[in-house]
Amino acid sequence: MPRKARVIVEKGCYHIITRGNQKQSVFLDKEDYQKYIYLLFKYKKRYKFKLFCFCLMPSHVHLIIEVELPAVLKKILHGLNLSYTLYFNFKYTKVGHLWQDRYKSKLIQKDSYLLGCINYIEANPLRASLVLNINDYPWSSYSLREQDSHILDDLF
User: How far apart are CA 145 and CA 71, in angstroms?
Assistant: First the structure.
């Protein structure tokens, strides 16, 4: 049975979710989170997409990004997920798939829903009981905003 086609439009804003295969953890230590964030900004610079927010959870990733051209979304996620998989498999002497299926993407409107989606994504660590205070979770865009508002000008 064929997969359902993605809805991809020019200047589209998307909520992206990528899960670890069999819901396994894809970030095992601080260095892993740092490597994914490094790769995320490497691809942001290469493909010049807008990054509204991100949150790296132990077993999955949430992103909200906007791309100018529809074909770019696939290139971003393919490169990002492949690069991180190669890093992870080499570091932990693993082989095979790291990510479950293909990434999920939901087209979202840039209105109050976008703000609600950002709040939902950045509050994930609280709902998962990873932290008691959102300020204490270092692997999200929220933590970067709290560290230094000027970082957003450079990174986002």
Answer: 30
